[in-house]
Amino acid sequence: MTCHLDALCFDANDPARLARFWAGLLNWEMADDPQGGIALLPSDDTGFRLRFLPSQTQKTGPNWTHFDLTSTSPEDQQNTVAKALELGGRHLDIGQGPDAAHVVLADPEGNEFDVIEPGNNFLADCGFIGALASDGSQEVGYFWSAALDWPLVWDQDQETAIRSPHGGPKITWGGPPLAPKTGKERLHFDLAPPVDGDQQAEVDRLVSLGATRVDIGQGDVSWVVMADPDGHEFCVLTPRRPLTNPSGR
């Protein structure tokens, strides 16, 4: 068995505040995190946790990935936007223009996300978190498809997307041009081998697929820090049991 996507992690200047925002918007349960942060446990088929880890570093540029949240009607889209603003979010202008059907917002620490208009065919069969929309190459889409054993659900014009066979959000990569990397990412994936798996064997497999081991000053820790072919960091944890969601996965 390959590793599974255990969590999407946020570096947060105020983990409690950021966790409260996303817990309120997603209606997910908050829990303590073993590394001193706060975790959110999904109440749907998302299949991975959110983790908010303490960091003193300030956000300086756009994140490499962001949530696309879905809507079932114009009223539903408006309600999601209003709820996000009430929880501490704000509107964000990234050049989308006044005629854009989607609404671009930022959470209390400036992490971008979109509230997508109803009737979006690409996300039609997805839940509230429709996608993690990412800056990345076609090569990195192929890498993550092999790394997670998730099939490609889109591969056209150098744009790629994958999705777990169990459902949940899609992860998409928009192809070139790619934004220049300017330091450690504020968001990263945590991967975990299966409970009876081997961390080093999984690291070796990921290296064979195109990943590299990297040193970001992590010191002597139980997890292994790596980077995908585009240079985005992720961590390989010690083996742990995959998250079980209410649907029984």
UniProtKB/TrEMBL annotation:
Species source reads: Actinopolymorpha singaporensis
**Domain VOC residue range list:** 4-118, 125-239
**Taxonomic superkingdom:** Bacteria
**InterPro entries for the chain:** Glyas_Bleomycin-R_OHBP_Dase (IPR029068), Glyoxalase_6 (IPR041581), VOC_core (IPR037523)
Q: Which CDD domains match?
A: VOC (cd06587)
Q: What is the name attached to this protein's record? A: VOC domain-containing protein
